Amino acid sequence: MNPLSTKVLGAATLVSSPALWLSLVDRTLPLDVALTRYLVALVLCWAALSLVATWAFPDPGSVPARPEQADAVAEEPLAGDLEG
Q1: DSSP per residue over 15-79, as a string?
Q2: Which end of the chain is more exposed for a tag (fewer CB within 10 A), N or C?
Q3: Which element (helix H / strand E) includes 13?
């Protein structure tokens, strides 16, 4: 997953929104601290979303089919092959 994708940037903004609010609106937090927190949140959100994307949605063909299941499916008769 691209670290500059909209999903990662949005998640990092959401996670660091309290620090950004305190810095940009309330002016009670220095801007460099808020931006540092945003960059840390960006890295953590990118890593978390990449892991979820890899585990939940693997690339097609990367997970091999088990051979015993493939043989069992091939030996079952089709509906048109039934007699009687």
Answers
A1: HTHHHHHIIIII--S-HHHHHHHHHHHHHHHHHHHHHHHHHHSPPTTSSPPPHHHHHHHHHSPPG
A2: C
A3: helix 6-15
